[in-house]
TrEMBL record:
Taxonomic source organism: Tieghemostelium lacteum (Slime mold)
Keyword Membrane among UniProt keywords: yes
Keywords, comma-separated and alphabetical: Membrane, Signal, Transmembrane, Transmembrane helix
Biased composition annotated in UniProt, kind: Low complexity: 270-294
Signal peptide region: 1-22
Gene3D superfamilies linked: alpha/beta hydrolase
Transmembrane segments: 304-326
Protein name as it appears in the record: Phospholipase/carboxylesterase/thioesterase domain-containing protein
Record-linked SUPFAM superfamilies: alpha/beta-Hydrolases (SSF53474)
Region ranges (Disordered): 259-301
Length: 327
C-alpha cells in the first residue's frame, strides 16, 4: 500500500510539472551595434511555422525603468513585471489562441530608438515565419517613451511598424517629433491614469493633441482611466478588457490604406483572432545597416532544444523512479 501511495504522488507531480509551467519564453540576443548585443525574451505562438501556412504577427514590448538589466541573467525581471505581456506569458494568462510572436527586449539604461529599430529589422532574418507587415510596438512608462522616441525618428523607421500603443509615456513631444508618424500614417493609441503620480498625464495629452493638430491620419486616441496609480498597463493589456488592444492591433498592417482607413477610436471588440491573409515598469539618428550573424540564429534554435530536452528529462526521471518502486 505504501508503494502505491508513493507511486500516485509521483504521477501527480509529473502531471503538475508538465501541465502548469509557464509558456516557454526563450532567452535571445540581437546585435544592435558593433560588438554590442541586447538581450530579449522570445515567445513563439503554437501556430508559428517556418515551413508554410499563415505568417505570425509580431509584438515588440518595451519595459519600464523597474526592469532595467541588460544581460541574459536579468531577463527574469521582465517576467516579474506585473500586467506586462512577458508576465502574462510566464503566468499562463496569455491566451494561446493569440497568433503573436512576442519579443521583449531589455535595456541597461534609457531606451535607445536605434536599438529598438535594430531588433525590428532583425525580425525578417531571425523569424522566417513572421509577418513583417504586422510588427506592433508597445511599451509602458519608460518603455512608452521608447515607443514615441522610436516612431518619431524618420518616416523610413516609422514605416516598419503597423501600429503602436504607448502607455503613460515618460517623454513629452518636442519640435518636429510629429512629422514622421504623421507622414507615415501610423495608427497610435495612448493610455494614462488621470492621477498618475509618477508620469504626468500631460505627456499623453500633449502627444495626442500634437499629432491630431497636425492632421495625423488615422487620428490618435487617448484613453484616460480614473485612477491614482502609475499602473495604466494592467487594464490596457488585459485580454478580458472591454477594449482589446491585441484585437485592435490586428486591424493594421504597415501597408497603409489610401485615406484614413478605419476610425482609430477604442470601443469593445471581440476576442483576438488570427489576422486575415488578404488585407493590404513599472516605476519609473538614423541607424546603420547592421545585420545579425548566422551564429546568433543557430544559437537561438539550440536554446529552444535545450529547454525542451530539460522538460523531457524531468519526466523521464520521475517515470524511472516510479518503475523502481513498483519492481
Amino acid at each position: 500500500m505504501y508503494k502505491q501511495i508513493i507511486l500516485c504522488c509521483l504521477v501527480l507531480v509529473n502531471l503538475y510539472c508538465n501541465g502548469v509551467e509557464g509558456y516557454l519564453q526563450s532567452n535571445r540576443t540581437v546585435l544592435v551595434n558593433q560588438g554590442q548585443y541586447m538581450s530579449y525574451l522570445e515567445y513563439l505562438p503554437p501556430t508559428y511555422s517556418e515551413s508554410g501556412g499563415a505568417k505570425s504577427p509580431v509584438i515588440i514590448f518595451l519595459h519600464g525603468a523597474g526592469e532595467v538589466g541588460g544581460t541574459v541573467d536579468t531577463l527574469q525581471k521582465l517576467k516579474n513585471a506585473y500586467g506586462s505581456p512577458p508576465y502574462m506569458i510566464d503566468k499562463n494568462t496569455w491566451p494561446q489562441s493569440y497568433p503573436f510572436i512576442v519579443l521583449s527586449p531589455q535595456i541597461w539604461g534609457w531606451w535607445s530608438c536605434h536599438f529598438v529599430h535594430m531588433l525590428t529589422k532583425s525580425v525578417a532574418t531571425k523569424y522566417p515565419g513572421a509577418d513583417t507587415s504586422r510588427i506592433y510596438l508597445t511599451g509602458l512608462s519608460m518603455g512608452g517613451a521608447g515607443v514615441v522616441d522610436t516612431i518619431r525618428i524618420n518616416k523610413t523607421v516609422t514605416d516598419y511598424y503597423a501600429a503602436a500603443i504607448a502607455i503613460c509615456p515618460a517623454q513629452q513631444p518636442g519640435g518636429t517629433d510629429y512629422v514622421a508618424p504623421v507622414s507615415s500614417g501610423l495608427p497610435i493609441l495612448f493610455f494614462h491614469n488621470n492621477g498618475d503620480p509618477q508620469v504626468s498625464i500631460t505627456n499623453s495629452q500633449n502627444w495626442n493633441n500634437t499629432l491630431n493638430d497636425n492632421n495625423i491620419c488615422p487620428k490618435t486616441n487617448l484613453t484616460v482611466y480614473t485612477a491614482t496609480s502609475h499602473d495604466a498597463w494592467t487594464k490596457t493589456y488585459d485580454p478580458s478588457s472591454s477594449f482589446n488592444v491585441w484585437n485592435w492591433f490586428l486591424q493594421w498592417t504597415n501597408v497603409r490604406p489610401s485615406g484614413c482607413g478605419q476610425p482609430n477610436t477604442p470601443e469593445p471588440t471581440p476576442t483576438v483572432t488570427s489576422p486575415p491573409q488578404t488585407t493590404t515598469s513599472t516605476t519609473t539618428t538614423s541607424p546603420p545597416s547592421t545585420t545579425d550573424t548566422q551564429s546568433e540564429i543557430e544559437g537561438s534554435k539550440d536554446n529552444m532544444s535545450s529547454a525542451i530536452t530539460l522538460s523531457s528529462s524531468i519526466s523521464a526521471i520521475l517515470l524511472l523512479i516510479s518503475l523502481v518502486i513498483i519492481f
